[in-house]
Amino acid sequence: MEIITISKEELFSGIRTLLAEVLATQVNEIQPKEQLLTKKDLATLFQVDISTIGRWMNENKLKPYYQGGKVYFKNSELPFN
């Protein structure tokens, strides 16, 4: 067995890094990332024209989310799946 000497700061840094990795893994397992789809993605998925996606939005059949001037849809909220 070999004894290694490290400073208190190095020990705490290592512990923080390890805890961050473990917590990140647990959070990802508990809350999977939501898949966001674009209008084009939906048009391809449902084999319709992009204008149909716009109409479905106007008819409140799809709930849009806006980010950075773009429109996205949550896969889990699609009424047609």
Question: In brief, what are we looking at here?
Answer:
The protein has 81 residues and is α+β, with helices and mostly antiparallel strands.
Report the strand count: 3
Contiguous runs where pLDDT drops below 50 for at least 5 residues: none
Listing every helix as H and every strand as E from the N terminus to the C terminus, the arrangement reads HEHHEE
Quote the beta fraction.
5-15%
Termini Cα gap: 59 Å
Average residue-wise pLDDT: 87
Helix content, binned percent: 40-55%
Cα Rg: 23 Å
The geometry reads as: rod-shaped
Adjacency order of strands in the biggest sheet: 1-3-2
Tally of alpha and pi helices: 3
| Largest sheet, strands/sense/barrel | 3 strands, antiparallel
Structural class per helix/strand content? alpha+beta
List the helices and strands and how they pair.
Blueprint: H1 8-30, E1 36-37, H2 39-46, H3 50-58, E2 65-67, E3 70-74
Helix pairs in contact: 2-3
Task: Describe the structure in your own words.
With about 80 residues, the chain is of the alpha+beta class. The chain has a domain at about 35-75. Helix content is about 50%, strand content about 10%. The chain has helices at about 10-30, 40-45, 50-60; strands at about 35, 65, 70-75. A three-stranded antiparallel sheet has the order 1-3-2. Strand 2 (about 65) and strand 3 form a beta hairpin. The radius of gyration is 23 Å and the shape is rod-shaped. The mean pLDDT is about 85.
